[in-house]
Amino acid sequence: MTTSLRSIALFTATVPLALSIGLGGCQKAQYVDPKGNDLIVSVDRMNIQDWNLLADQVVASMVNSGVLSRLPNQPAGILLNPVINTTTQQFDTDAIMKKIRIALLQTGRAEVIMTAGPGGRAEDPIAKDAQALKDFQSGRDNQINMQNVPDATLTAKLLEDRARSGSTRQIAYVLQMSLTNTNTGRAVWEGEAQVVKQGARSSVGF
Fold first, then answer.
1. Of 48, 89, 109, 141, which cross-links 68 as Cys (Cβ 3.0–4.6 Å)?
2. Is residue 192 within 8 Å of 175, Cβ to Cβ?
């Protein structure tokens, strides 16, 4: 067999093998429960399960305290401030706040104000424009819309603490939250949630 024919034969035999290996690798992907024990755990960064754990802890604490039922104008209008991220990581903190918002709305004790925010920033500008149009049509455009005045505001700060002993690394994420009654200007609830992880490298499972 000539050199050129031998090269062609080798290439022909190699391509199917490479394809089978590639396809075999793709077939290993699978869906996992986002709240299960089969998720990848990264020691040096936040994972989706960390967001779930932090949100679940703080909202459970708030609901169990009964503070939502004591706020005026049931269901109370709550304005959520952006999460202050003091960790060394850059990520979308709305992922945590969104889970907290969902849990708050599911209690039936609170409604989240979307047409007002810090510095006049509306989280839903389309809803804000629609509300302004309705106020104009009803002749209330020069008046303060009391629906935009929150009964309470929620602030949150995310912190981290890192430690190391030999080859073992540890990182703790702490979410601190405060609920303020706007009628009094006083904090009526505060909560803190923690997630602590140890390991030498990323692994699977909580």
1. 109
2. yes
Which among 106, 119, 150, 114 has a CA at the least distance from the CA of 131? Answer: 114
Helix (H) or strand (E) holding 163: strand 152-165
Give pLDDT tens digits for 75-102. Answer: 999 999 888 999 988 878 888 888 888 8
Token couple for 7: 């090269």
Q: How far apart are CA 181 and CA 46, in angstroms?
A: 31
What pLDDT shows up at residue 10? 44
Residue 1 lies in a domain: no
Give the CATH number of the domain where residue 95 resides. 3.40.50.10610
Tokens, residue 194: 């923690």
DSSP string, 57-77: HHHHHHHHHTHHHHSSSSSEE
Contact between 103 and 56 under an 8 Å Cβ cutoff? The reply is yes
